[in-house]
Amino acid sequence: METIVPVHPGLPLVGNTLAVARDPLGMFTRLHRQYGRVVRINIGGRNQYMVFQPEDVKYVLQENHRNYGRSPAFRVLKRFLGEGLLTSDGDFWRHQRRLAQPAFHRQKITLLASTMVQESAAWVAELGQSDLSGPINISQALMDVTMRIVCKTLFSTDASHRLNGLSHSLETLNVLANKSLLSPIKWPTSWPTPNNRRYAKARKQVDDLIYGFIASRKQTGTRHDDLLDMLLYAEDEEAGDSPNRRMPEQQLRDECVTLFTAGHETTAVSMAWTLYLLAHNPASLERLQAEVAGVLGTVKTEEGALPPVEAFRAMPYTLQVVQESMRLYPPAWAMSRMALADDHIGPYRIPKGDTVVVSPYLLHHDPTNWPDPERFDPDRFAPGADAGRPAYAYLPFGGGPRLCIGNQFALMEMQILLALLVQSFDIHLVDKKPVRPQPLITLRPSRPIRLQLTARPTAP
Ligand code: HEM
């Protein structure tokens, strides 16, 4: 039997937009408590169905995923990312995903991970040489190193001289995309509004860089074991001898920009939260350092050589710390889909064209599946601790066929960065004021996280 979806009251014309814009996490948390399973709200003139229960989330993302396409929210991202993996849909997306998937197989990740070890070790060494007499802005430092890692693994290039400009462009794009999502008035993108002008400038800066990488690779023809090569030489078996066997330039640009954007900011933000949590939880930090010392202290390497990638796979507690950090602060805090045809989620009717919103943040803070949910406790991810927990109660990387293609890449990168950093440094919070999560496209700290690093006596 059909049940009417409860509707949360809002203001005339703007619906619930202002309340959501003011405090999205607070508002969503209240809606979850009040309605429990599903509620309809109105944001920016559109009906949105929030689904709160893991089994309903599984239904949308996995069981009936063909009925749930990219929502209008993705149009904003499309302006920048084009028809890349994150924003495309339907058969076109399936085709692109098939082409890109081999680049993320386990052996390929292992290969890319040795680059991660080199870059992370160089970064930690540079930190050690820098002036550590006062606190450092670790958020910015992580943005730089994850950018370096993505440049090396994607393009085998060191673009560090352009890093500052780029971080700033991506920041601009993030803030503008978010503003545009919440605004009920959509100015045409061709109008020379200040926001559109800033957006175009930021986009051009990123495009110049990416097209430059593609052009120089095509010119030299040199082969590299990086993600760009995998995309350049990926072939569509079904295209026969047609010139479309390989990705056209524009598509290459879209996929590169997508991997580049999706691949660095999320990881940097997540790492910053992880260090923030560890600075608050010295017992966990100590246990982590003991694990790292136990593994890295015993691997046999030649004098001055870096530890092998396998060593980082033998650090279960390091992984648990990262997983717990992404539970408390999932960088992708909300995801949305559009119903392509009328459907039912349980007894609730979802009309064609309306949006369904899933929030990993709410799922991860639900006391039903996470007792004492605000407490940082990496043992929630100890072997066997997930018995009885629904699979979709935890989805930092999404779920179903659109699961993050870079999830293994990201976990590996975070484990490596974290292990090498805490091996060399103790970390302390200087500013005791709590940092709040600020939900833009990603869940960022409300202000940059500043930490005091002190070299450890046992550091290499
Ligand atoms: C902590 C780091 C990361 C987090 C939390 C994260 C999270 C996510 C989530 C939740 C989705 C699904 C979005 C949806 O279904 O609407 C996604 C998709 C995606 N992610 Fe990640 N991601 C991370 C790192 C990366 C990395 C390192 C890469 C690439 C190198 C990457 C590339 C992508 C791509 C291409 C998609 C679209 C996949 C598709 O739809 O086929 N991500 N990510």
TrEMBL record:
Q: What CDD domains does the annotation carry?
A: CYP132-like
Q: Which InterPro entries match?
A: Cyt_P450 (IPR001128), Cyt_P450_CS (IPR017972), Cyt_P450_E_grp-I (IPR002401), Cyt_P450_sf (IPR036396), Cytochrome_P450_Monoox (IPR050196)
| Gene Ontology molecular-function annotations | heme binding; iron ion binding; monooxygenase activity; oxidoreductase activity, acting on paired donors, with incorporation or reduction of molecular oxygen
Q: Where does heme bind?
A: 404
Tell me the domain of life: Bacteria
The answer to whether UniProt assigns keyword Zinc to this entry is no
Presence of keyword Transferase: no
List the cofactors: heme
PROSITE patterns (alphabetical): CYTOCHROME_P450
Leader peptide range in chain numbering: none
What keywords is this UniProt entry annotated with? Heme, Iron, Metal-binding, Monooxygenase, Oxidoreductase
Q: Which PANTHER family match?
A: BIFUNCTIONAL ALBAFLAVENONE MONOOXYGENASE_TERPENE SYNTHASE, CYTOCHROME P450 FAMILY 4
Q: Which family does it belong to?
A: Belongs to the cytochrome P450 family.
Name the chain's protein: Cytochrome P450
Query: To which species is this protein native?
Result: Fibrella rubiginis
